[in-house]
Amino acid sequence: MFKPVMLAALLAGVAHCRFMEPSSDPYALPEGMLIGAGVSALQTEGAWNLSGKAESAADYVLHLGKLSSLGFGDPHDHDVAADSYHRYKEDIAMAVKLKLTLYRFSISWSRVLPDSDPSNPNMEGVQYYHDLIDEILRNNLTPMATLHHFDHPRILEDQFKGFQGEEMVAKFKEYARFAFNQYAGKVKLWVTVNEPNMYCIYFPNLYNISGLYTDNDMQRYDCVRHTILAHAEAYHVFHEDNHEGRVGFTALLTPARPNSTRSEDVYTAAAYNELQAGLALNPVVHGDWPQDVKDLAGSKVPEFSEAEKQRIKGTADFLGFNVYYTLTVAYKTPDNATDGGSIRGGMHC
Q: Has residue 135 got a pLDDT over 80?
């Protein structure tokens, strides 16, 4: 029975295949495919304190100069960075030369709303992104905007530790509505929070190393929960306000494969993938944490209420995966263990 069914499926698949005609342009892309480059305000803009921009939480912790153990050299490198605030036209021209079709950038929350008050915007910052978007469109590229790439106004970190505080959900909703009202007429592809699963581990750790947080201050699972709730609110705002376009959710993926075919290693790889990627992606697709995350992390993981589950479920018009490398993982035993981390079931959690 299996072989005829498989053969029928293959024949059906071949029947529906669309074979592309050879193109005279060796760089031609299939119709509808976008290939592009991405930048972020923190990493490329510079101009960290110019034209009305407020200090961001990232500016503050980097300027303290206490992160050399993590490979940060000059604490003021990002003050200028690639100077794209002044040289964005050169960046876009380079994208055109590379035959890219999409240009992804992030909006600096602390540049457009320095005190996070939509009634008090920094119009120089607002106009900068209009100019950037107009230049992208003028060069026949598709703009994709990210609302948060690690650089919310420092005032929000001071008030309630940023995304570790539930107050951030309402603040992000206000900011998202402001950004959509400004730019959604030109930008049709949006990402809400870049890599929340990475941000909520890495960024609080920077504050901890810099002496600004204690270990007890770092509520990583609360942070992920709040980024998901904030994302969902932004998603609903976009569609309820009848903007045209799509709002997606982007997570960091470092896919793990088992070190061997031993069941313990297979389990560990699957559990790692759930803790790392499923933690962020499962809620916006299915409305809750993966069961493996609940089992492994236990009471560390804050529950979503039934109303929240309904609110967050299905809140992604597309999913974005940032993949830089993969991992090979093995089940941790006393024989292969190294120091560090709290261990449950052979996993760091």
A: yes
Range 36-253 has CATH code 3.20.20.80: yes
Q: Look at residue 20 in the predicted model and tell me its pLDDT.
A: 53
Distance CA 79, CA 65 (A): 13
- What Å distances lie between residue 240 and 180, 189, 193, 317, CA to CA? 12, 16, 19, 14
Which among 156, 169, 162 has a CA at the least distance from the CA of 117?
Answer: 156
Inter-CA distances, 100 with 29, 86, 104, 245, 308, Å: 10, 21, 11, 20, 39
φ, ψ for residue 87, nearest 5 deg: -120, 25
Backbone angles phi, psi at 191, to 5 degrees: -120, 140
- Cα–Cα distance measured from residue 195 to residue 192, given in angstroms and rounded to the nearest whole number: 10
Provide φ and ψ at 192, rounded to 5°: -85, -75
DSSP one-letter string for 92-121: HHHHHHTT--EEEEE--HHHH-TTS-TTS-
Global confidence as pTM = 0.87
Nearest to 349 by CA among 300, 309, 310, 288: 300
CB 249 within 8 A of CB 232: no
Q: For a pLDDT cut of 90, what percent of the chain falls above it?
A: 75
Which residue reads 């590379």 in tokens? 98
d(CA 280, CA 226): 11
